[in-house]
Amino acid sequence: MMMSFVSVLIGAFVAWLVAWFYYKKAGDELKKEAASLHCTVGIILRWLEAGGKNVLVIHDQDGKPTGLNYSLSLSDSVSATDSVDNIGPTQTNNGGR
Predict the structure, then answer these.
(1) Judging by beta carbons within 10 Å of its beta carbon (0-12, 13-18, 19+), is residue 82 exposed, middle or buried?
(2) What is the pTM of this model?
(3) How confident is the model over 28-62, as pLDDT tens digits?
(4) How far is CA 75 from CA 64, 69, 72, 78, in A?
(5) In sequence order, what DSSP letters do the residues of the chain get, joined into one string?
(6) Is residue 55 within 8 Å of 69, Cβ to Cβ?
(7) Most distant CA pair in the chain, distance
């Protein structure tokens, strides 16, 4: 009885150890990937801001980008013409009056 209880405890410890190692490794990889993506996004935002006159990157107090402001100027000319052809007198029915 005591041996089975010790076996369960050892098995639980081994399972916890394997899970902890797996999640630690996955968390470290996620941090590395997030840092890489943060760097890539920063490069893209600087490229957009430098290359385009219409793009403004909005930063917070810490200098982190929080959004983009894209402005676009449009100009257009519109002309309209209309004509009505008189095809003759119209007849109306006033209900027999």
Answers:
(1) exposed
(2) 0.46
(3) 999 999 988 988 888 888 887 777 677 778 888 88
(4) 34, 20, 10, 10
(5) -HHHHHHHHHHHHHHHHHHHHHHHHHHHHHHHHHHHHHHHHHHHHHHHHHH-TTEEEEE-TTS-EEEEEE-----------------S------TT-
(6) yes
(7) 114
**CA distance linking residue 46 with residue 39, whole number of Å:** 11
Tokens, residue 65:
């980008």
Q: Which tokens hold the place of 7? A: 């076996």
Domain ranges of the chain: 12-70
